[in-house]
């Protein structure tokens, strides 16, 4: 029954995909595949245009840099990785269509992306049906690697943390590091990401003596937060928790600071985008904290060398999405190397057995649920720039 449902899904998705006509691909990434293990094609299904393009573009840049380094140094002993990137336009239906297209028509051995949770979830059925591994570098929704029966999907992996982990970790930070007793919560009703983080933050904050003085719902892509800011100003609070995407977070922070709110504003890893400073202004980005799996302040030589190389290649500093894109590419390459071929099943088995992988985002292993086991940071911004990173743990 599950297989027939997936077949029907792909018929619907493929029909929807035809509305866009031919997909836009990046021709310089395409090469003729000869069917041997000498070349292995890897798909990059990312948000290269649309409202979430900052995440996908940075992730693609990190991944392509890693593949270029791997091929140039012949790190896979004669196996060449051929990346094939496609633009899902920040759209879930297109993400599903392209996931299936990459696997059935482009012959990829694995796919990285999409970068965001809603789009990645839409791409999962193609991986399950076609038995091709798909890797989440940055999508954090708890349900990504787990099916409705509570079992790990055989072909789905994640190298970042879950929403529950970062929601709990920020609650821990608010209570123990900021000594917060009262919190205002802003929740995006249109976002699985926002809902998951809020749910976990609220539970842990309350269970450890904190009070939620107001929980305010909004719908994403709103630009006028003045009524919400004026409502918040009437409350007695220590922190504001708003785990939204950079568009809404940037606008909210800007308006909150302009209207006199100076208390700490807390968020999730989606704050890590250069667009946040463009929208909020650097002067507004003080006393702002967000959870992240990557710290540019980490003095690990791998991390610092990556920052230097990225800056030299692209003329700007990487963010977490760049770093996780880089690590995802190397995670896939490491699995190919240990598998000794481009066979998707062998690559999948190698991914599942990954232990102590040395990433630029820190060392991680893959657990039985196909999620990574790694540390989490809270990053403090000063004038829009990361000024401090604190390692925190979630409170259960």
Automatic annotation (TrEMBL):
Pfam families, A to Z: Peripla_BP_6
Keyword Signal assigned: yes
UniProt entry keywords in alphabetical sequence: Signal
Lineage summary: Bacteria, Bacillati, Bacillota, Clostridia, Eubacteriales
Record-linked SUPFAM superfamilies: Periplasmic binding protein-like I
Protein name (record): ABC transporter substrate-binding protein
PANTHER family noted in UniProt: LEUCINE-SPECIFIC-BINDING PROTEIN, PERIPLASMIC BINDING PROTEIN OF ABC TRANSPORTER FOR NATURAL AMINO ACIDS
Domain Leucine-binding protein: from-to ranges: 39-383
Keyword Membrane on entry: no
Family that this chain belongs to: Belongs to the leucine-binding protein family.
């Amino acid at each position: 029954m599950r297989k027939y449902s997936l077949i029907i899904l792909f018929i619907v998705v493929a029909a929807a995909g035809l509305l866009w006509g031919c997909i836009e691909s990046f021709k310089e990434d395409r090469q003729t595949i000869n069917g041997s293990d000498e070349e292995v094609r890897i798909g990059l299904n990312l948000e290269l245009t649309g409202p979430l393009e900052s995440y996908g573009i940075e992730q693609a840049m990190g991944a392509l840099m890693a593949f270029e380094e791997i091929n140039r140094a012949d790190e896979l002993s004669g196996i060449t990785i051929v990346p094939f990137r496609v633009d899902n336009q920040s759209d879930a239906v297109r993400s599903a269509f392209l996931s299936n297209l990459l696997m059935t028509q482009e012959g990829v051995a694995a796919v990285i992306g999409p970068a965001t949770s809603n789009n990645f979830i839409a791409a999962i059925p193609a991986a399950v049906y076609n038995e091709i591994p798909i890797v989440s570098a940055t999508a954090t929704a708890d349900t990504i690697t787990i099916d409705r029966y509570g079992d790990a999907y055989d072909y789905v992996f994640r190298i970042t943390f879950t929403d529950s982990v970062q929601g709990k970790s920020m609650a821990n930070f608010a209570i123990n590091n900021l000594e917060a007793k009262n919190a205002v919560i802003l929740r995006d009703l249109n976002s699985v990401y926002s809902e998951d983080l809020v749910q976990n933050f609220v539970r842990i904050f309350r269970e450890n003596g904190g009070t939620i003085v107001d929980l305010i719902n909004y719908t994403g892509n709103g630009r006028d937060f003045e009524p919400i800011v004026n409502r918040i100003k009437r409350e007695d609070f220590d922190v504001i928790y708003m785990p939204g995407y950079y568009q809404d977070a940037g606008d909210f922070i800007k308006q909150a600071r302009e209207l006199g709110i100076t208390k700490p504003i807390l968020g999730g890893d989606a704050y890590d985008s250069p667009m946040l400073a463009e929208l909020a202004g650097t002067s507004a980005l003080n006393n702002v904290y967000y959870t992240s799996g990557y710290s540019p302040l980490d003095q690990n030589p791998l991390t610092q060398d990556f920052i230097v190389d990225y800056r030299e290649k692209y003329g700007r500093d990487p963010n977490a999405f760049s770093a996780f894109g880089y690590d995802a590419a190397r995670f896939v390459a490491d699995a190919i190397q240990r598998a000794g071929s481009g066979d998707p099943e062998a690559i999948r088995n190698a991914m599942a057995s990954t232990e102590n992988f040395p990433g630029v985002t820190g060392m991680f292993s893959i657990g039985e649920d196909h999620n990574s086991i790694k540390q989490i940071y809270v990053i403090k911004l000063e004038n829009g720039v990361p000024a401090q990173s604190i390692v925190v743990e979630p409170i259960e």
